[in-house]
Amino acid sequence: MDIAKMAENLKKLREDHHLTQEALAEALGVPELAVYKWEAGRLPLEYKAIKAIAMFFDTTAEKILGEETAEELKSKASDKVSFNCSICGGELVYDYDNCTCRCANCGNKWAIAELYPKYAHAIATINKAGEILNSKTVLAAADESKLLYKQAIAECSKYSDVVSIELIKICKEGQAKAKQLEIYCRGKYFFDHRSYKSALVELEKVRGFRDADDMIRRCKRKP
């Protein structure tokens, strides 16, 4: 990417529309410093920002990029994991458990799926599996969530970047929790049907999970 050429094109486009850097920044919802750095060639424009600028000026991404096409940049952006904020250049801190990241400098926050659309479906699948685990206490929920995590792992395994590795890690942790739920459900079934010895065998395997400890204590008090 020719950053200098892109900076020159952006500045010309802004000046042709008689806008100040402050006005353009306000229109795009970014700090004025970001526009200054873009035009000074000190901060490269990411594809998301280019799309927003092109839409605002009713032009094309190619007009801003010059020789490099938008499709080429889009392909690069979808594969590369960035660790710097596109607005201020600060370090991005990733919260994979919540599938978000934020800039340690300016505080702006994004969903990982927004930055890397190729993971959008996998993240939606992971979130759905998590919701099922947290809201239901039946064997069917354990089975469904395990299947969803398996599907998400298959999708993430197509790639080999940091995001892929971390999402797969979350899936495996989710599968472990689903296994706990499965054991817990068996133990609770025995407990509810007063088969306390069988309940104790299962619940001892998942101490600390939901109200397993309470049921264990009650099982031990039964004759």
Count of separate DSSP helical elements: 12
Helix-strand makeup class:
mainly alpha
Task: Write out the strand line-up for the largest beta sheet, numbering strands in chain order.
Answer: 1-2-3
Kindly state the percentage of residues in helix.
55-70%
* Low-confidence parts: 68-80
What is the ordering of alpha helices and beta strands?
HHHHHHEEEHHHHHH
Give a short account of the largest sheet. 3 strands, antiparallel
State the end-to-end distance.
Answer: 76 Å
Basic shape: elongated
Question: What is the percentage of strand-forming residues?
Answer: under 5%
Number of domains: 3
Using DSSP, what is the number of strands? 3
Would you kindly provide a brief summary of this structure?
It is built from 12 helices and 3 strands.
Word description of this protein:
By secondary structure, this protein is mainly α. The chain has 12 helices and 3 strands, in the order ααααααβββαααααα. The longest helix has 31 residues, at 162-192. The chain starts with a helix and ends with a helix. The protein has a 3-stranded antiparallel sheet with strand order 1-2-3.
Descriptive keywords:
single chain, three-stranded antiparallel β-sheet, 223 residues, 12 helices
Give the SSE map.
Blueprint: H1 3-16, H2 21-28, H3 32-40, H4 47-56, H5 61-65, H6 70-79, E1 92-95, E2 100-103, E3 109-111, H7 112-115, H8 120-135, H9 139-156, H10 162-192, H11 196-203, H12 212-221
Antiparallel strand pairs: 1-2, 2-3
Helix pairs in contact: 2-3, 8-9, 8-10, 9-10, 10-11, 11-12
